[in-house]
């Protein structure tokens, strides 16, 4: 593997998360010496907005000579000679996210981008898009590392596991570090001292301990105690974001009623669908908030740069998201064996769960990829039961994708933990088939 002059490709380059990743890449050049950055997207105009912003960032850092920046919609141009590919697709964009969120709500069910039936709708679109990217990587850059953040993570990583079992790929989600960072900044800890033990499916898991090296003990019990008494406020990177404030409040409710573990906030959609439905406006969902907020702001930055306006133009704070991706890439490159939460085939990591489930657990990351850490204890029946049902539903959905099976899709929709009856499951499935059109595989 090359150690310098790296070529990095961002697949889904037009995403509003791209500047955060590039910011982290720039500040990590010492341990991750890249000289070429390619933005690849099928949406030429969004990709070009991002190209303007990144070019501007490189210029401010006096890096335009050292880093060659490319934008392209051509897979061959993008992936040939690539060393690292960061994949963050959103197939169908925010418009389809809005559809995913709104259709289930019409039938009184949870409407969310990655959880519940919205997540399943997104999943069938995303699998198609990500398998395409993996096939390009196999064709044009078979030795490259693919670091994937494309949602819904368990579904897409399960599909890739089946179709391309040998691809050099890591699947990661930033939710656990966002949870850790939010707790650490609220309660005055430094999460860099933490060795957390966490298990689950993606957006569906629990912390069972958090060992803090600065005091040499498990501090999860005291964190849970503080959660009981003190509200958790949004961290800087989500400042002013009411959706996230609601999420942290729901997390406190979960720890109150199910003590002993710290749940991933996304479990609210499975444990308290009634409440999340109550506090969501069915005509103005998260997709609308993001389109009217982050998306508009980014477009405006690109406009100002094109118009050569003076003054402070860049305005974004993505917290640890970009740094997390960067640290993972550096850990591979330099064989650092740093520890990250990754989505991997279980293979005994959670001893009493089926081996072929895609689970999210801690893993060491080095030159040969991920080395997942076994929990070395059996998980309890409550968590196990929830995970097994969700995992079976997800497996059925991936079966539906590969087998073009309407029946398997209906089973998946019915088994989804946010669904109380096969009636809405079928109605929503039929609505989604129509709304997704060619984004979805044909189901017969
Ligand atoms: C977290 C999750 C991601 C998800 C994102 C949504 O970072 O880990 O999987 O996509 O939140 O954020 P947004 O601001 O787009 O609602
Ligand atoms: Mn995530």
UniProtKB/TrEMBL annotation:
Any Pfam family matching the protein: Glyco_hydro_4
Annotated keywords: Cobalt, Glycosidase, Hydrolase, Iron, Manganese, Metal-binding, NAD, Nickel
InterPro entries, alphabetized: Glyco_hydro_4, Glyco_hydro_4_C, Lactate_DH/Glyco_Ohase_4_C, NAD(P)-bd_dom_sf
Tell me which cofactor or cofactors this protein depends on: NAD(+)
Active-site residues, record numbering mapped to chain: 174, 266
* UniProt-recorded Gene Ontology molecular function terms: hydrolase activity, hydrolyzing O-glycosyl compounds; metal ion binding; oxidoreductase activity, acting on the CH-OH group of donors, NAD or NADP as acceptor
Cofactor remark from the record: Binds 1 NAD(+) per subunit.
Site Increases basicity of active site Tyr: give positions: 113
User: In which residues is substrate bound?
Assistant: 97, 151, 286
* Binding positions (Mn(2+)): 173, 203
Which superkingdom heads the taxonomic lineage of this protein's source? Bacteria
Looking at the record, the residues that make up the Glycosyl hydrolase family 4 C-terminal domain are 198-419
Any Gene Ontology biological process: carbohydrate metabolic process
Give the UniProt family note: Belongs to the glycosyl hydrolase 4 family.
Q: What is this protein called?
A: Maltose-6'-phosphate glucosidase
Species name: Tetragenococcus osmophilus
Q: Tell me the gene name.
A: malH_3
């Amino acid at each position: 593997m090359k150690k310098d002059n790296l070529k990095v490709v961002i697949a889904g380059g037009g995403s509003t998360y791209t500047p955060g990743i590039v910011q982290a890449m720039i500040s990590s050049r010492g341990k991750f010496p890249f000289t070429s950055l390619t933005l690849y997207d099928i949406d030429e105009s969004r990709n070009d907005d991002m190209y303007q912003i990144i070019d501007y960032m490189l210029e401010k850092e006096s890096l335009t000579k050292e880093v060659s920046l490319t934008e392209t919609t051509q897979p061959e141009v993008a992936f040939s000679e690539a060393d690292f590919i960061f994949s963050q697709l959103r197939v169908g964009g925010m418009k389809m996210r809005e559809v995913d969120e709104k259709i289930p709500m019409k039938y009184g069910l949870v409407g969310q981008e990655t959880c519940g039936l919205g997540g399943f709708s997104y999943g069938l679109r995303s699998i198609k898009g990500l398998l395409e990217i993996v096939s390009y990587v196999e064709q044009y850059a078979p030795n490259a590392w693919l670091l994937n953040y494309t949602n819904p993570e368990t579904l897409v990583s399960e599909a890739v596991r089946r179709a391309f079992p040998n691809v050099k790929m890591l699947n990661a989600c930033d939710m656990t570090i966002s949870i850790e960072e939010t707790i650490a900044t609220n309660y005055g800890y430094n999460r860099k001292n933490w060795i957390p033990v966490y298990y689950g499916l993606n957006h569906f898991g629990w912390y069972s301990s958090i060992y803090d090296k600065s005091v040499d003990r498990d501090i999860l019990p005291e964190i849970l105690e503080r959660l009981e008494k003190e509200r958790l406020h949004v961290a800087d990177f989500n400042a002013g974001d009411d959706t996230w404030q609601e999420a942290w409040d729901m997390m406190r409710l979960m720890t109150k009623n199910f003590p002993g573990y710290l749940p991933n906030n996304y479990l609210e959609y499975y444990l308290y669908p009634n409440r999340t439905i109550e506090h969501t406006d069915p005509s103005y969902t998260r997709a609308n908030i993001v389109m009217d907020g982050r998306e508009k702001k980014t477009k405006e930055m690109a406009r100002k740069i094109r118009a050569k306006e003076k003054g402070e133009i860049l305005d974004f704070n993505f917290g640890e998201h970009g740094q997390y991706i960067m640290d993972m890439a550096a850990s591979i490159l330099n064989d650092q064996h740093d520890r990250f939460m990754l989505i991997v085939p279980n293979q005994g990591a959670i001893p009493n769960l089926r081996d072929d489930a895609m689970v999210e657990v801690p893993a060491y990351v080095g030159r040969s990829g991920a080395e997942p850490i076994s929990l070395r204890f059996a998980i309890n029946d409550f968590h196990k039961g929830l995970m097994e049902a969700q995992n079976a539903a997800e497996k059925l959905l991936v079966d539906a994708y590969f087998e073009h099976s309407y029946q398997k899709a209906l089973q998946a929709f019915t088994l989804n933990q946010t669904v109380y009856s096969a009636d809405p499951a079928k109605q929503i499935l039929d609505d989604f088939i129509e709304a997704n059109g060619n984004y979805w595989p044909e189901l017969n």
